[in-house]
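User:
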Amino acid sequence: MSRFRAVFFDAGNTLLLPKPSVEKVCAEVLAEQGYFPPLADIKRGLDRSERYYEQRYREDDTFWASESEAAAMWSSMYALAMEEAGVNDSEAMGRLLYDEFGKGDRWSLYPDVMPAVEQLHAAGILMGIISNWDVRLPELCHHLGLSRYLEFVISSANLGRIKPQHSIFRTALERIDVAAGEAAHVGDHYYADVMGARSAGIYPILLDRKGAIAKPDCRVIETLYELPEIIRGEG
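Assistant: Predicted structure:
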């Protein structure tokens, strides 16, 4: 019999992905404003904004605990990408793109999400989301049809705490009255998800969709199709 009663998930790159892609969403929004840069230029700009995010995140990740600071960070990222792509009025476009990605229609679920979630739900496993995200996350999850399977959706900006702080994971455990040793957490980020879960005594499972992690010191899966067997104690 499995020791697990609950599974927590990260959101971005674990459950949710932009629809149809970040660069194509950007291109559609830009076209509505009369800008038509090549997709290659948009992609180059997004690569630059990703590097900016990683630097910001390494230096100080506390912006995720504040809605205003999270929104400003996202807007700055998109503005930087638009500037790199040669778009005028990049700051205004950055905020416009931030608003656009708050719409449910701009997101989808990875193909392995619903099969895994439905199997876990059928097995009586309690589920929730713990993510460094802005306050729009619960509505996005509802739009995508996840809400009926979830006990809660915790975004860092709503709670005022961030992964990997153990307190955000402890809050999740308290909401469903589950002991740390009875819960697993699945996410794609070693620092936020693995280290954070461990700090709270929760079993970490690292999702490596690209198969790029070498010598892991935790349980690693490449798809959520693998998850139900692990949680049921069969894998």
